[in-house]
Design goal:
alpha+beta, Alpha-Beta Plaits, six-stranded antiparallel sheet, 4 helices
C-alpha cells in the first residue's frame, strides 16, 4: 500500500508575532495563535515546492500569551494614492504578541491538481515516486542544517524569529493553560492552493486546549 501522508514538525520562537485578525480593521489585532495559512507558510519558508501540499495539523503554545501595543511608520502599498505619490507614511497601531514560542506540526501529501503547476514542478513530480516522502527528507535535512528557502517570519515580515529548527529539549508546552475560545479564524486566502484565485475560508469555534490548537482537517486537501 502506497503511503500518501508524511509528518513534519519544527519549533519557532521570537520576540514579536502578529497573526492578523481580519475583523480588527485598521488597528490590527493578533489572534492568540498562528493561523493555518501562517503555519503553512513557515514550513514552506524552510522548503518550498509546489508539487506537494503542506497541511498544518496543530500548533503547541510553548510560551504564555502576552499582548503588546505596537506602532510603526507604514510606507507600504496600502497607503492612499496621494500618500504614495507624495512619499508620505502614516503611523500604524497594532496589538501584537511578544516572547512567543511554538511547536508546529503538519502533514505532506502529493498535490492533487497538477494543472496549475509550473513546468519545473511537473518534471520533478514525474521523477519522484513518492513526492511526500521526498519533501519530508528534504525538509528535515534543511531544518537540521538551518537552511531555508526564505527567512521564516512570525506573521509580518519585520518579525523575524530568534530561533527556528528542530525541537529543543528545554521547550515545554503550556499544558496547564486555561482554554481559549476562538469563534472564527481565517484559514486560507488562496483556498485551492498554488496559482488559485482568492477565496477566503474560515474555521469556526476553535479552542486552544491544554496549550494545543488543532486545525480542522478537510478532505479536499488529501489525494484520493
Amino acid at each position: 500500500m502506497v503511503r500518501l501522508s508524511y509528518p513534519i514538525a519544527m519549533e519557532i520562537a521570537g520576540n514579536t508575532a502578529m497573526w492578523t485578525r481580519p475583523d480588527s480593521g485598521d488597528c490590527p489585532v493578533s489572534y492568540p495563535a498562528p493561523t493555518y495559512s501562517a503555519v503553512k507558510a513557515i514550513f514552506e519558508s524552510v522548503a518550498w515546492g509546489p508539487g506537494v501540499e503542506i497541511i498544518p495539523t496543530k500548533v503547541e503554545l510553548c510560551a504564555p500569551i502576552q499582548y503588546h501595543s505596537y506602532c510603526t511608520n507604514y510606507g507600504g502599498p496600502l497607503r492612499s494614492t496621494k500618500s504614495i505619490k507624495e512619499g508620505n507614511n502614516y503611523q500604524l497601531y497594532a496589538t501584537v504578541l511578544i516572547d512567543v514560542c511554538y511547536r508546529l506540526y503538519a502533514e505532506v501529501v502529493p498535490y492533487k491538481d497538477k494543472s496549475r503547476l509550473p513546468e519545473s514542478a511537473v518534471q520533478w513530480d514525474k521523477k519522484t515516486t513518492s513526492p511526500g516522502h521526498a519533501y519530508q527528507s528534504i525538509f528535515n535535512r534543511r531544518l537540521k542544517r538551518g537552511q531555508c528557502y526564505s527567512i521564516p517570519t512570525l506573521g509580518w515580515k519585520e518579525f523575524t524569529p530568534s530561533y527556528f529548527g528542530e525541537f529543543r529539549d528545554t521547550t515545554q508546552v503550556l499544558s496547564d493553560a486555561l482554554p481559549i475560545v476562538i469563534p472564527s479564524m481565517l484559514r486560507r486566502v488562496f483556498a485551492k492552493g498554488y496559482g488559485s484565485p482568492v477565496s477566503y475560508v474560515y474555521d469556526n469555534d476553535l479552542v486552544i486546549r491544554n496549550g494545543v490548537l488543532e486545525y480542522p482537517q478537510r478532505s479536499e486537501n488529501y489525494a484520493q
